[in-house]
Amino acid sequence: MTSMLMHSLRSGPVSPARFAARCLSTSSQVHAAAKTKKTLAKPNVKNIVLVDGVRTPFLLSGTSYSDLMPHDLGRGALQGLLNRTGVPKEIVDHIIYGIVIQEVKTSNVAREAALGAGFSDKTPAHTVTMACISSNQAMTSAVGLIAAGQCDVVVAGGVEFMSDVPIRHSRKMRKTMLSLNKAKTLGQRLSLLGSIRMGHLMPELPAVAEFSTAESMGHSADRLAAAFGVTRVEQDEYALRSHRLAKKAQDEGLLSDIISFQVPGKNIISADNGIRPTSMEQMGKLKPAFVKPHGTVTAANSSFLTDGASAVLIMSEEKALALGYKPKAYLRDFVYVSQDPKDQLLLGPTYATPKVLEKSGLTMEDIDVFEFHEAFAGQIVANLKAMDSDWFAQNCMGRKSKVGVPPMEKFNTWGGSLSLGHPFAATGCRLVTTVAHRLQKEGGQYGVVAACAAGGQGHAMVIEAYPK
C-alpha cells in the first residue's frame, strides 16, 4: 500500500494557482540507520534527557472514559510515570501540563492531577495551552527550566477529555444571570427574569474552529488539500496506511509507552480503541464531512475526538546518571513557527522542519526517524507536497530551494494520530516518546518531531538517541 501511496503522490495532479506545489518525489538518499553520526552535544551547554514517557490508552470520546474528568486521566498518566520510572516524588522540582479545552472546575489541571497522583503539595505545577502542541510546549518549558539551572527534574505532559466539554449559556443569558446574582430586591429580580427570551436559552456549542477566521479546522484541511491537489484517494490511502501500521505496532507490542488505566467501576483499559484497519472500498463510501458535497475530507481520513493523557520525565543528564537512570534520548534543538491561520493553518511541519534542522546543523538525510502529527490525511500529504516544492519554498518560505521530503520508510511507521488517536494536548509527548523508542528499536541516531496547531502555529524538535 505504501508503494501505491508514493506512486499516487508522484503522479497526482499539480496543485493549482495559489501554491503551485509540485508532487512528491523520493529522490532523497536514505542513510543506513546504524551509521554513526556526530553528536549534537555543545560545549558548556547542559545535556537534557528524556528518561521515559508514558500515556494512558487513547480512547474514542464517549467510550470507557466518558464519566471521568480531565484531571483523572492526568493523574493516571502521572501515576503510571511514577510506577514506570520509580522516580522519588520528592525530587521532582516542577510539573507542567498542557490542555486545550479547560474544565472550569480544574483550571490548573497540572496541579490537580499532581496532587491526585500523590506528588507533594510543595511541588509547583502549572498548566500551558498551545492547541495541538500544548504538551510540546510543556516539554520545552521543562527544557528551559533545566537549561536555566532552575530545576534538575521536571515532569511534563498533557491531557484532553473530549467526552465532556464546556457548553455555555448564550452571552445575553450569562449577563442576565450575573445581574440576577447581584440584584438586591425582589422587583429587580422579577424584572431581570421577565427580560429573558427564548433566544437567550440557546446554548453556545463548542467547535474545533479558528476564532480569527471562524472556519473549522476540517474545512481548512479540505481547502488545503484542494490547493495542493491532494485527491480523496491519496487521503484514504494515507489514512489506511496509518491504521495498518498502528495495528501492526500494537500486535507486535511496540506501543510500550501505554500504561494500563483502571476506570472506577469498569474494566482495566490497556489498549487504544481507535485503531481500525478497513479497506479503500469501505472508506470510499463515506461522504465529505466538512465541504459538502464535493469535499475530500471525511471521518475516515481525519483524526477522531479522543480522550487521553501523557507524561514524560525530563532531567539534566548529570542528575539522571547520578540517580542511576539510563536515559532514552537527548532532547536537542527545537523551534516554534507561526504563519497565516487562514490559508496556511496546517503547514506547521513544512515551516518548522527546515528551521530545526538548520539550527542543529543537520539535513533531511541525517534523520533516521520522522514522527509528524497527523491531524488529517490531507494535511499530511499537503505538507509532504509543500516540502517537495521549490516554488512553495521560494514564494512562501523565502528559501532558495525546497525543504525535501521524508522517506516513507522512516515516516510514522508505528501509526499516528489518525489511528492511535489525538487527545489534543497529549499528542506531543506521544510523538517524542515514540521517536525515542523507534531510535532504540531501529538503531538510528536522530529523530524529528513536527506538528501543526490551531492558529497557524507549528513545532519541531530534534531528538538524539542515547548511546547504548
TrEMBL record:
It comes from the Eukaryota. It is an enzyme of class 2 (transferase). It holds the Pfam family Thiolase_C. GO terms for molecular function: acetyl-CoA C-acyltransferase activity; acetyl-CoA C-myristoyltransferase activity. GO terms for cellular component: endoplasmic reticulum; mitochondrial fatty acid beta-oxidation multienzyme complex; mitochondrial inner membrane; mitochondrial outer membrane. Keywords: Acetylation, Acyltransferase, Endoplasmic reticulum, Fatty acid metabolism, Lipid metabolism, Membrane, Mitochondrion, Mitochondrion inner membrane, Mitochondrion outer membrane, Transferase, Transit peptide. Residues 48-318 form the Thiolase N-terminal domain. InterPro entries: Thiolase, Thiolase-like, Thiolase_acyl_enz_int_AS, Thiolase_AS, Thiolase_C, Thiolase_CS, Thiolase_N. Pathway: Lipid metabolism; fatty acid beta-oxidation. It is found in: Endoplasmic reticulum; Mitochondrion inner membrane; Mitochondrion outer membrane. Its EC number is 2.3.1.155, 2.3.1.16. Gene3D superfamilies: 3.40.47.10. It catalyses: hexanoyl-CoA + acetyl-CoA = 3-oxooctanoyl-CoA + CoA; octanoyl-CoA + acetyl-CoA = 3-oxodecanoyl-CoA + CoA; tetradecanoyl-CoA + acetyl-CoA = 3-oxohexadecanoyl-CoA + CoA; decanoyl-CoA + acetyl-CoA = 3-oxododecanoyl-CoA + CoA. Residues 325-464 form the Thiolase C-terminal domain. One of its GO terms (biological process) is fatty acid beta-oxidation. NCBIfam families: AcCoA-C-Actrans. Heterotetramer of 2 alpha/HADHA and 2 beta/HADHB subunits; forms the mitochondrial trifunctional enzyme. Also purified as higher order heterooligomers including a 4 alpha/HADHA and 4 beta/HADHB heterooligomer which physiological significance remains unclear. The mitochondrial trifunctional enzyme interacts with MTLN. Interacts with RSAD2/viperin. Belongs to the thiolase-like superfamily. Thiolase family. Mitochondrial trifunctional enzyme catalyzes the last three of the four reactions of the mitochondrial beta-oxidation pathway. The mitochondrial beta-oxidation pathway is the major energy-producing process in tissues and is performed through four consecutive reactions breaking down fatty acids into acetyl-CoA. Among the enzymes involved in this pathway, the trifunctional enzyme exhibits specificity for long-chain fatty acids. This is Trifunctional enzyme subunit beta, mitochondrial.
